[in-house]
Specification:
Chain lengths: 117, 117
């Protein structure tokens, strides 16, 4: 099954996990349509404009990977702050915490994958 | 845990699934390190130079999603041929078949995710 770019489900969320600004999400697979077969709950492309963030939160019962496609961000990786850019991967395991902010001048774009623990 | 771009596991496979040329794979999560927690087996960035392909094959016991990041390709989606480009998603469910070829002039780059059925 092919879903063209314009057919993918888009969402804009303000203040995601207590973060600043609006996060744009393009869903690649949809949990509502059982497209994860019970193995996960999110596979999506996120876009954060400069200054936009996803607040600090814990993953409980699942784990998340970010793969940075473009832009620059600052991640709090379970208590440790580190810069990220295109090609970097952030893995937040079950029980761990993270946050991310676009602290650059371009859009921060990444793929996010959440699988069940 | 953050894995910088240069730390990600890279692989070059010739004739993947009977396809033409060499496919470059950057592994974002590694099954060998139990990073899928048993839910999947591949989360990777694939790069196919012009003319390179992944041959026609069936997914059995798992399913795969491609998310096209750049370039142009021709997918055989379980018997139906269709062009793909940046932003398009291809879902090959358990039991279905697919192949992909870079029929453009630029690198064809996509994210591939294989989860267990």
């Amino acid at each position: 099954m092919i879903r063209k770019a314009q057919e993918l489900k888009r969402e804009v969320i303000k203040g995601l996990r207590g973060g600043q600004g609006e996060v744009e999400i393009v869903h690649l697979l949809e949990a509502d349509k059982n497209e994860f077969n019970g193995k996960g709950k999110l596979f999506a492309k996120f876009t954060l404009k400069p200054g936009v963030s996803i607040g600090w939160h814990q993953h409980s019962g699942d784990f998340e990977a970010y793969y940075i496609l473009g832009g620059r961000g600052l991640v709090n990786d379970n208590g440790r702050e580190a810069p990220v850019q295109a090609g970097d991967m952030v893995l937040t395991r079950n029980g761990e915490y993270h946050s991310i902010v676009n602290n650059g001048a371009e859009d921060l774009v990444f793929i996010a994958l959440i699988l069940l623990a």
